[in-house]
Amino acid sequence: MSFFVDENTRLIVQGITGREGTFHTQQMQEYGTQVVAGVTPGKGGTEVLGVPVYNTVREAMERHQANASVLFVPPKFLYGAAYEAIVSGVPLVMTIAEGTPVHDMLKLHHLAKEKGVRLIGPNSFGVISPGKAKAGFMAHRIFSEGRVGVMSRSATNCYETVFLLKNAGIGQSTVVGVGGDMIPGSTFVDILPFYEEDPDTDVVIMIGEIGGSEEELAAEYIKANVSKPVIALIAGKNAPKDTSMGHAGAIVSPDGEGSAESKEEKLRAAGVHIAESTEDILRIVKTLV
Amino acid sequence: MKLLEYKAHEVFHEFEVPSINGFTVSSVEELESDTREIEYPVVIKAQVQTGNRGKAGGIQFAQNKAELIQKGGEILSMTIKGLEVNRIFITEKVDISKEMYLSFTMDRKTKLGVMIFSPEGGVDINEIAEKNPDKVAKVILPPGDEIEDFILQYVIDRTGLDPQYAEEFKSICRHLYRMYVQYDCLLAEINPLVVTKAGHLKALDGKVDIDDNSLYRHSSIEAFRDEITENQLVLAARKFDFLYIPIKDTGNIGVISNGSGMIMSSIDLISKRGMEVTCALDLGGGATADRIKEALKIVASNPLVDTIFINIFGGITRCDEIANGVAQSIEHIDANRLVIRLEGTNKEQGLQIIRDIGGNIELVDGLYAGVDALAEGMKV
After folding, report:
1. Pairing mode, strands B201-203 and B112-118
2. What is the pLDDT of residue B380?
């Protein structure tokens, strides 16, 4: 089964005429994703890689009955592009760019909730259901089809993990880039129910990091609602306080909120397997599958 | 980015938040030649990015010009918590009858703004909350560009603020909240918000933290950022769109990687083995050889660094570009050890380039192998 993206995904690429947008449209097509339309304001009527381009998301939706959109637009334009997608009836909106202003994301987060739209990212590699489809820029060669679900705030730690899994012959059902920003469109708690309900997922790997409270909230949710085994890695145990570690969201506040210890403690208490490293994730997965 | 105090007052004034008046200088000469009319006594405040300036002698009073020049000079020659004082803020001395606390910040749990107010201020808000939780009101705010009156009324009633200050308080809140929204603040804090002897409210000191990602729409603040960045390596890295992160004042390892998550994982594993990372540099995605050369030079120029660990899992970043960058910079790097792990796009080409450089570069396969190699070399 898998979720979010698969062979039935009809994808819009916003920013398709840009360098990154075009390059990754080709990559997504080669992987088997149905890219049905592109949107770039002012470039309507043209075509990129055989994909028709429109000025607005609304027209792309009307003509192609798309069910997802991925945004290859710079952070300055992310708010406008995501807003347009959300109010034009796209049910799944995936945002890639790093560097979106936090106040923009605060607004988008609540707008998406209000409209019942699943918003993923930003600062995310996208979503991939290996062997079926991908929406985003992830290096798909290192992913493989299987029954382990992965969701991650970090792209590199996720790559490292799926690479180790692949080499050990363990594939993935759906892999979601939650993103490294302070305010993600969807959090671990928002995505966990999909893994719990997905008949093709046996084990869930959650790659978190310092900063915020998403892992603590996930711990509460898992305790009450998730029957499948969950493995968690929290990166940044040795990061200095009050210092952003690159991801805007990876920051422990001066009073200690967002620390790795707090997250690991809550997760452990919820029965989650705590991994010390990406290799440790592999070791634990092997005991569970 | 966190604004220095004087800059915070500037934005308070801009948003009509009643705030103290003053001016800044960065040298004694500037003070000596200053001709403006000053009403004494004045307060002289060191402009450094750290708390507890007062305890370190960074806040003093002056009764006349001679004293201002003498004490101003003293403060300008200070180093407070490792930070050189390059600027002093000279302000009116306000006679106060009460200190309070007010801030707007972001609650990451609910993804909403939050207002925090306490009629007891002047010290750390967490301290107040611990000792006297009834005196602190914390209200999660609905999304919006303006703050509603009923929220302010609730805060006043809940904390027992003297009703005679209610109208002025509400006005300050409305203006500060507007500033919080329009300046993309992560934190807009007034501490202390004082009641003057004359019975008016005024921001005596403030902390304003503006979202780095929003600086493109606040150009005056963006220009100010480089001015206050103390760490030269952070500045040097920024020029090439890299993020240089000082980790510790000790340690001997510098980590270079292509992503925040990978940097944190590297530091975690290295620290677990009893070694210390002193700094890290995030290349971001897609760095080319000539930029990687610069990244290596920046990390190597940290005098504490004698060992550099390059840990790459390349997607957009290509291993051959990394290797070429190493080849181009190797002569300029005087680190004792260079441990390199390459994985991902064009790995084989990259490895070959590194092998061709020769010398004593240590190539490792995998993050764990890299950490093992580091540990072995340091005998830990």
Report:
1. unpaired
2. 62
**pLDDT 10s digits, B273-315:** 999 999 999 998 888 999 999 999 999 999 999 999 999 998 7
Note whether A153 and A185 are within 8 A (CB).
no
Nearest to A156 among B184, B247, B262 (CB): B262
CB contact under 8 A, A137 and B316: yes
pLDDT digits (tens, 9 = 90+) for A74-123: 999 999 999 999 999 999 999 999 999 999 999 999 999 999 999 999 99
Give the β-pairing of B96-107 and B112-118: antiparallel
pLDDT digits (tens, 9 = 90+) for B339-360: 999 998 899 999 999 999 988 8
Assess A119–B contact: CB distance below 8 Å, yes or no.
no
Q: Which of A262, A289, A7, A9 is nearest to A149 (CA)?
A: A289
Distance CA B6, CA B23 (A): 8
- In degrees to the nearest 10, what's the CA dihedral of B86, B189, A255, A184? -110
Task: Give mean pLDDT, residues B157-162.
Answer: 93
Distance CA B51, CA A287 (A): 49
**Residues in chain A within 8 Å Cβ distance of B261:** 152-158, 180, 207, 209, 235, 247
Q: What are phi and psi of A71, to 5 degrees?
A: -110, 105
- Give the residue numbers of B marked as catalytic: 101, 189
Q: What is the pLDDT of residue B276?
A: 96
Residue A273 has pLDDT above 80, yes or no: yes
* Residue of A102, A235, A277 lying closest to B184 (CB–CB): A102
Cross-chain Cβ contact B264/A236 below 8 Å: yes
Q: What is the mean pLDDT of chain B?
A: 93
- State pTM to two decimals: 0.93
Rounded Cα distance, B149 and A100, in Å? 30
Beta carbons of B152 and B169 less than 8 angstroms apart: yes
C-alpha count within 13 angstroms, C-beta hemisphere, residue B37: 0
The answer to whether A206 and A214 have CB atoms below 8 angstroms apart is no
DSSP state letters, A113-147: HHHT-EEE-SS--EEEETTTEEEE---GGG--EEE
In Å, how far is B27's CA from the nearest CA of chain A?
A: 30
Q: Which residue has the tokens 């200088």?
A: B25
How many C-beta atoms lie closer than 10 Å to residue B380's C-beta? Answer: 9
As a whole number, mean pLDDT of residues A37-57 equals 98
- Identify whether B192 is preceded by a cis peptide bond (ω within 30 of 0): yes
Please give the residue that has the higher pLDDT: either A255 or B222.
Answer: B222
Report the alpha-carbon distance of residue B283 to residue B254 in Å, rounded. Answer: 13
Q: What is the mean pLDDT of residues B217-235?
A: 84
Q: Which candidate in B177, B213, B214 is best for mutational testing of the A interface (most A CBs within 10 A)?
A: B213
**C-alpha closest to that of B9 among B184, B172, B160, B207:** B207
- What is the rounded CA–CA span in Å between residue A152 and residue A188? 8
Three-class secondary structure of residue A19 per DSSP: helix
Tell me if A159 and B247 make a contact (CB, 8 A cut-off): no
